[in-house]
Model the fold of this input.
Amino acid sequence: MAEITAAMVKELRDKTDVPMMKAKKALVEANGDMDAAITRLREENKNLQLKEGRVSAEGLVEAFVREHAQLGVLIEVNTETDFVARNDEFAALVRYLAVHAGQNPTAESVEHLLDAIHHESGEPARTRYQEALAKLRENIVVKRFTAFQTTDGTIGSYVHSNGKIGVLVELSGDGVDVADLAKEVAMQIASQKPKFLTKEEVPASLVDQERDIARANAAADPKNANKPAEIVEKIVEGGLSNFYKGVVLLEQAYIREPKQTIAQVVKGKAEIRRFVRFEIGEASA
Done:
């Protein structure tokens, strides 16, 4: 039997908001396996809401899209305190680095990006970065960046007003209408946090897990006790459909018109090819 520590119980409580004893019981039953404990809790409570894994961090997300909308960059820069994150000098550094990343979209890592020569200054971006470190007197980390390039599509972006969430998206086609649509899709992604573009991208193991949870929830509902197996299976598939509507972009309800899915919004106008979403404090990068 695995040892269930107070730290493990706290981690599970932080992720699920369940009472301490319930969290400990789930961990004991799962022999210390955190994912299995979460699955058990979800099977017991179909309305359980999981919190996204987050770490303590401040900073800004910034996007840069070239005028022709065929190249775009999303970058996240972290700092220690919100005080510095709201500093104009720090914001200027992040904008500088976003433009610099747009000048060097093939950079393979943050280190390569900082060592690349900035087109206007003729110096490595690391010089400006180190100047900001000295002036702000706080640790600043360029956490991650990504670049999209296309020859026959449109890159769009959206950064939430507080600079904590940013999105980069690529659509097929070009022109003003496609650019406007790309902005709408980016806002949808920022708000609704999809993890996949299509249902086909969802790993089979995750689909199986969600189906098992939906089946356990259906079996635990007294209202389903005397229903035929085929009806219960339809209920299970309904639960799986709701899962897809939460994590798959094309299946999500459009935030401006919930009666439409994103697939219906873009149909006949453009194809969504890919997207990326950054949020300050995400544990994974």
In short: The chain has a mean pLDDT of 89. The CA atoms of residues 157 and 168 lie 5 Å apart.
